[in-house]
Structure formats: structure tokens, C-alpha cells
Write a structure and sequence with these properties.
This protein is α/β, with parallel strands linked by helices. The chain contains 27 helices and twelve strands. The chain has helices at about 10-15, 35-45, 80-100, 105-120, 135-145, 165-180, 185-200, 210-215, 230-240, 250-265, 265-280, 300-310, 325-340, 350-360, 365-375, 385-405, 410-425, 430-445, 445-455, 460, 465-475, 515-520, 525-535, 545-550, 555-560, 580, 590-605, and strands at about 1-10, 20-25, 55-65, 75-80, 120, 125, 125, 200-205, 490, 495-500, 500-505, 540-545. Strands 1-8-3-4-2-7 form a six-stranded mixed sheet, with helices on both faces. It has a two-stranded antiparallel sheet with strand order 5-6. Helix 6 crosses helix 7 and helix 10 (about 250-265) packs parallel to helix 13 (about 325-340). The chain is globular and about 90 Å long.
Length: about 600
Amino acid sequence: MIKHVDDLPLSKVFDTDLPSFFVVPKYQREYVWGQSDWDALFDDLADNESNDGHFLGTFLAVNRQNASHIAPRYDVIDGQQRLTTLSLLLAAIYRVISRDISQDEEAIVERMLLRKMLVTGDAARLSPQESGSNRDDYFAVLHNAGLPLTPKPKTPKWMGNRRIERAFRHFGRLLGAHGQRNAKDDLWAARDMLGRVKRAVLVKLEVGTYSDAFKLFESLNNRGKPLTPIDLIKNSLLARAEATEGVTLDGVYDDWTTWLDRLGDDYSTQERFFRQFYNAMKDVWGLSIAGAPVATRSNLIRIYEEQIEKRLVDSDELHHPGLLTGLDLATEQYERLITLAPDAWETSELNRALADLVRSEGTTAQVLMLYLLLKQSERRLTDSDLLKLTRLLVAFSVRRNMTNQPPTYELQRLFMEVIHDLERLDSTGEQVYDVVLRRLSARSADDVDFARSLGGPIYEDHTNVARFILVQLAKQSMTKESWQDLWARDQNQSGTATYRWTIEHVLPQTEHLGKDWVEMLGGATAASATQLAHVHELGNLTITGFNASLGKKSFIDKRDRVDEAGHPIGYLNGLNLNSDLAARDTWNEDALTRRTATLIGKVIAAFPLA
């Protein structure tokens, strides 16, 4: 497996007598080290007072030399963060030494040594990963430091905002600080650090194939960012691809990139997909692994390692695609489940319903929806059938999130039981809805329990679900002409996206109520009691796009508020949800509790399990 294990000072890794090139393949992660990593590396080197070189860790490389390569070429599988950072430190040292106007013999020797460590001929010894402009930024840094490269690199746009350039500048500052701490100048600091870097030791593990490299990969992430299960699944997939007839490494890498583009860059979504894909299709497509009835975070790597080993390419069995085909089909459908379609009248009802499933915190139900989308043709489901099923899952999710019936830990198995029933009964068309409804209604809270939970402090206990419920009630009476996107977001000054329409407490939740409110509620004691008992109840909540302008104002001010153009922005804003508030002149405990009862009835009707 391992061809060579070499315990080398960095001066031998970047051997000036035997030029070699280190290439980070395109499927590796981008450069992700930040200031804390740069500081730790620099401090480790600066604080080492022994004559022995500081141990920098291990890097793993595949020897890709062949007849067309004059110099050895290594593909770096692990250790790219460390090699890139060390190269940037050497470039910063080179810039300081090359600017020394004395140009004494020592400076000339050091400059030539550094040049050979970083550049061979007119080509960079290290070629970082391409994505995120890493490679272009690195070549530009070398050029700007004064090192010769052909062709002459261009300075990429926004380069100064990215990590490669920031690391290079930061090392320049650290060199200056190193000199000051020792009452020396920048040139002394650069020479001192060069000696420390040259002596620093790296262990190079050299293997001959990607398969061997990926078998070692998991245990070699010494100072790098922690590998996630998704990283390890990718590595196993690429390692197996190289050894599989009819499959190419680049082809599988391109497939993987496509899949993650569909899933987005949120890790929790990626991980949830890989769990739900197995849970949805393990028995349907023959993916089941012994001892893994349900995919969890703890067994995810084992599940996919075994799948990759056994079922990478298409099976001869009917309707049992191989893992590559299955993941391609599944990520295409999963993208539909996680993409929040524009909340517009023109958006299809199915896409709006799929977005509602996410907004109602029903992502656990996506395991069943993924199955239904993948099996739509076989189950003879029209888009209207899928719309009806999605709305059923939204209703179930709202009820479950309000009542915790069934508890969270039972949900995944419940949806898997539904899939098992659909397969066992070979249900089609409207039969599918009947099977799903029967299973879910048997485990869900009934209307009595649902109403009881809706009557509590819903805002305090279930803020996100409360907002979803209020938005859905507000949309019930909207037409094409009156449609408003109540899920719209705006960027605030810090760059965070916040909802334009937010929950508004009719009776303010502020600790000190104004005089008008105290009088309307029958005095300070009654006002305090009403607020304490009911302020977070459903009947005291609505939504508004102008929450900040309403706040502590009196009920009448909130009702009649207008903007500078005279447009209503209070309870006269035209939302059907606010129609009862718009018709009132007072707000008290009786009015609040009556509205709570009315809205509870509307919510139960809006989210039926029938």
C-alpha cells in the first residue's frame, strides 16, 4: 500500500536539487485555514528553541510520475492546507529578503534557495486546488512577491478578500512582530524564520494509487479541519471509482460536484439527504446493509462504504439502480424538496406546498416525499396527487410540532413504515393517500389535543410554527390581485436576511405598558394579569410588515397607522387575518380570548388529518 515513508525537513520536501511538483486535485477541499491556524503554525515555529526541527505533521501524496513528466509529480491527497500555508510563509520571507538593498552574499544565497523551493524554472512547485480562485490567487501571490512565473499571472478580482492573499499579508505582519519581539529588524526575522522552516519536519507518505491513498485518508488529518462523514463518503467513492471498470475518477468527481450543487452548501442538509436516501430506498432499491435498519449519524459512513463496495454501478436486477445512478436520481428530486420556491401566485401549487413543508419544520417528512417523487410513475401519482400528499404532510408536521405527538425519535421509523406499507400493498393512485393518512392519523394528535396546544403560549413555546400558522391563515383569502409574499426577506445592515413580515403582539409584550393600555385593560393590576396570562397566545398575535413602527403604541394607533403616503400599515392593511382587529375600538382580555378560540377553529380546519 505505502511505497515510501520519508521523515523529511521541509528543505528536502521542496528539494532544490531534485525539483518536484505538488498538485492538489480539483476534487479536494478549498483552502480553508484561517488566522488562528496561521498564528498557531507561526508560533509553533518561533517558539521551538531546540536544534531539532519542529514536527509539522504528515502529508499523503500519490506518485503520478510517468514518462511524460521530467520531474516527479505528486497529487496531494491530504496535507494541502499545511503545504499551501508553508509555501505562503516562504513567499512572505522571500519578499522581505529580496527587498534587502545590501544584497550581501548571504542574502543572495537565501534568495536563490527560496526561489528554488517555490519555483522550478518558471513554474510553481505547488499548484493549489482550483476552486474558489485558490490556484490563481496563489500564483498571483508568488508573482507579487517577486518570483518569476510564466505565463505572468494576472491579479484575480477580489483577491484581497480571500484567504490566500490574506494569509500572505498576515505572515508579513507576523515577521515584523517577530523581529520587534527580539529587538531586531525585518530582515533578521525573515532569516531566522527561514532557518526554522527549513528544519521543520514533515512526514511524507507516498502511495502509488488513489485507492491506497483514500484508505489512509481518515487517520491523517492532524492539524487540518475535521473530516465530516460526507467527506469520507466522497473519498471512499473516489477510491472505488479508480478500481472500477467503466468508471473514471474524473467522471465520478464531476457527478459528486453535481450532487452537492443540488444539495447546497449547508452540511446539515447534505447529511440529512444521505440518511434519508438510504432510509427511503434501502428496501426498494436493494440498498439495505446488515445491522443498519435505519441510517443514523453514527452508522452513515459504514452504510455508504459497504454500498460503494457492493453496488457502485447499475445492478442487473430490475428497478435496482446502482449507487451512482441512484444518487443522481435522488439528488435531482431532493433539490425540489429543499428549494424554497418563490412565494408568488404564478408558482405552481405543488412547489409552494413543498416549500411549506420546509417552513413548517417538516423536513423529517422529506424521507417519504423523496420516495414518492422517485416512485411517482410506478405509484401512478399525478402532480395533483403529490400536492394532496404534501399538504397532508404539512398538516401532520404542524400538529406534531405543536403537540410532540409522536415524539421526534419515532418520526423516521414512522415514515419508513409508511414506505414499507406502500411497497407491500403495491398501492397506486388514491390508494397511496389512503395508506399515508391511515398511518399518520393513527399516530398524530387528535383535534382535542391539537386545540389544547394551540390555546397555550404558542409564541413562547413554538415561535416558528406560530409564524407559519399565521402566514397560512393570512394567505387563505388572497387572490392574484391581493397576493403578497409574506415570506420575503430583507438584508439588514449586518448582512443577515430577516423576514419583512414579522409576528406582532397586539397587546405589547413589553414590561411597562403605556397609559392607554393600562386604562383599556382596567387598571395596572388587571393589565399586568392579562399580559402575564395571554400575551403569547394565538389570539394576541398577528403579522405585519411594520412591526418596529407599531411596537408599544396604543391599540388605536396600531389599528390606524399609515405610512408617509397614507397607506395603511396597521391592522387596516387589508390582510384577512387582521379583519377582526380592524373592526374593533378596544382590546381586552375578553376580546383576546375570543379571538384565540376563533383562530384555533380556523387552524384546525386549515391543517386537517382527513
